[in-house]
Amino acid sequence: MKKLMKNIHLQNYQGLIDNALLEMENAQIMERIWEKDFTVWKNNPEEISNRLAWLEIAQVITDETKEINNFVNELLMEGYKQVLLMGMGGSSLAPEVYRKTFGVKDGYLDLWILDSTDPGMIQSYTRRLDPQNTLFIVSTKSGGTIETLSFFKYFYTFLVDKLGEAEAGKHFILITDPESSLIEIAQTYHFRKTFLNNPDLGGRYSALSHFGLVPAAMIGVDISLLLERAQVMMKKCQPNIPYKDNPAAFLGALLAEMAKNWRDKATYILTPDIQSFGDWVEQLIAESTGKEKKGILPVVKESLGDPMFYFKDRLFIVMSLPLTELSWIGKINNLVLSGQPVIHLELKDYYDIAGQFFLWELATAVAGYRLEINPFNQPNVEISKKITRQIIKKYSEGSPIDEPEPLIKKDEMIVYGDIEADDPYEALRVFLSPCHPGDYIAIQAYVNPNRETECLLLRLCSVLRDSFQVATTVGYGPRFLHSTGQLHKGDAGNGYFIQLTSEPKVDIPIPDEAGSWQSQVSFGALIKFQALGDYYALQNGKRTIIRFHFENEVSVGVDRLIRSLQ
Ligand SMILES: O=P(O)(O)OC[C@H]1O[C@H](O)[C@H](O)[C@@H](O)[C@@H]1O
User: Fold this and answer.
1) Which among 251, 260, 391, 421 counts the fewest CB atoms within 10 Å?
2) 313: which residues sit within 8 A by CB, 6+ positions away?
3) Per-residue pLDDT at 333
4) Mutation to probe ligand 1, out of 115, 137, 141, 198 (largest number of atoms < 8 A from CB)
5) Which positions are tagged coiled coil (predicted)?
């Protein structure tokens, strides 16, 4: 434990955590989790007993690394140069961590991830990829995710145009569960391969399964070494390890006890080389704990500020690699001095990411036990999907769609919400006026996730945090719907949601059937309806939401909002 945790500052919470660990030891919680005893969480095994295979996947899957590596070699021999992975949430976040952390090894395939339905984003991928040398991964556990299916239909049709029908299917592979309806589609369209994943684990617990390992091997990551590192961590978390030295027991108890004591904002400070781990752990914690009016809010994108900008609702988690220049170490010390609880985990090298995947999965399962929730389901995600499907149906039938009445139109912005104001800036101020420390502000941006927008949205977060002393998060739609979307609708309801939408400059059709350009719905319509579906889902759930629609440049609109707050 000491090697793993560089520093632990629990302030006056040490006794609370010691007690929680003692209680857990007496109730043999780690033993029961490893024995896959569903009663740890609920009295009903539904969506628990068939969701625990991640506990051993790093061992079980070692037999399959050879097959995965052989497949990658086959692709390299055939001259493939790049891979476009199409998937949402648990089917794409771990591959993104591997790509952003390890980069691409010489001679291996470059990996791009597509998890945005923004037409501009899809167009830029289409322009950049070389059809001859690109492999497409359709990655979906359920086989029913609308974004993933739409990406498949679009890129397959695109490839038929470029290479012909006989060639197109050879450029596609599928990663899915054995029961998925996509298996038949893969056969129909002559995909080159289908990897069937272990169905007994959820997407956010799948980093060490086919969903993570196949793309990792493609960029030249040594997947056997990854699994070894995960197994090292598994050993450290066995039930025979005293609970106080068991990192998963400790972390799980820490996350949950802090949340129960109003420190429910798990704020990650990650060094740039492992920054993307934040996006993965965000889905894991938010989707696993944000339900039954409870939840831990992962804060993964905020810049590190001075102590005065933080309320006493935080737990800070610092993660770094040895010898990384920690320019912000002084700021961390100030946080400790100001009374904030801070822990610092140190990874030996990039391959330790695999150990961290396992550690946080088990810690989240432990936290779920302490919070008395089922950490393996996502009961509220379906709500916005359902409303979006209804809107799409109406639109396809040519029926009118219910849209909220615009409140204000000014400065190329249209504002929607249940407040009274004369201009967008006043609307934002009025909207946020009841927001107080302990709440959080979530920016939900259904826009092209390019660098310029990202910088501005992060700036908006900083300004909001510093003005209101609240935790802030930012997520791109529809990506966040598969990550933090569950928490937004399932937690206690103290979030303030700022939805940002934009007028697409281009549009791209979603083929009704793969292979033909006939199309009823475009990506532009889909992203609009996804935003609308979630807007209504949040409203129905009595959440506080405002929408700013940018008629022109998103960057100009966001910049105006930032200035109005300063
Ligand atoms: O892998 P898929 O079945 O396509 O699912 C992708 C994502 O969809 C849903 O929104 C779930 O809430 C996520 O947990 C999941 O990761």
Assistant:
1) 260
2) 262, 263, 264, 265, 437, 438, 471
3) 94
4) 141
5) none
